[in-house]
Amino acid sequence: MLKQTALANMTRNTPHNASANNLGTHPDPAALVAMAFPGLREAVAQWMAEDLHKWQSAQQEQSQQEQMMTRKALKAEFEICTQTIRNWEREGILNPLTVGRRVFYSRPEVLEALKSRTKPDGTRLHARRKSTTNKTR
Q1: CB-based burial of residue 103 (10 Å sphere; 0-12 exposed, 13-18 middle, 19+ buried)?
Q2: Which residues, including other chains, have CB under 8 Å from residue 7's CB and lie 6 or more apart?
Q3: What is the pTM assigned to this prediction?
Q4: How far apart are CA 86 and CA 74, in angstroms?
């Protein structure tokens, strides 16, 4: 019913309605929708803006969660001994975030600590190294 009313209004309001009807062409569907629902464009634009904001917020939250790592993840990724991590906590180099019994560390903070404790040749200061000699008993 609404489409028929909009179509009738559209054909009445166009100056070329006689020639358009004779040629068998139809009015522009976008114009029909705009006339039938005047606030539709604004409503869709607002809905899209809200969805975009929600998506951006979710992306930021996800990237922040990726920045936090557990001791186990640090050990696996950076080959840091868990005791070293605890020592860095005690010395104030790392500031852990504790949630319940779980402990998380900021990835950028860990990278900075590693950078400050790495020699120019790529070896770490005070790192335990595997023995290169064969020890026999």
Answers
A1: middle
A2: 27, 32
A3: 0.45
A4: 12
Q: What is the DSSP string of 35-95?
A: HH-TTHHHHHHHHHHHHHHHHHHHHHHHHHHHHEEEHHHHHHHH---HHHHHHHHHHTS--
Q: What is the pLDDT of residues 6-35, one digit of tens each?
A: 455 555 555 444 444 445 577 788 788 777
- 9 exposure class (CB count in 10 Å sphere: 0-12, 13-18, 19+): middle
> How do beta strands 97-99 and 102-106 pair?
antiparallel
Classify 102 as helix, strand or coil: strand
Q: Edge-to-edge strands of the sheet including 97-99?
A: 68-70, 102-106, 97-99
Q: Using one digit for the tens of pLDDT, what is the confidence trace for 33-90?
A: 777 887 888 888 898 888 888 877 777 776 665 688 888 988 888 888 888 889 889 9
Rg (CA), the chain: 33
**Separation of alpha carbons 63 and 133, rounded Å:** 44
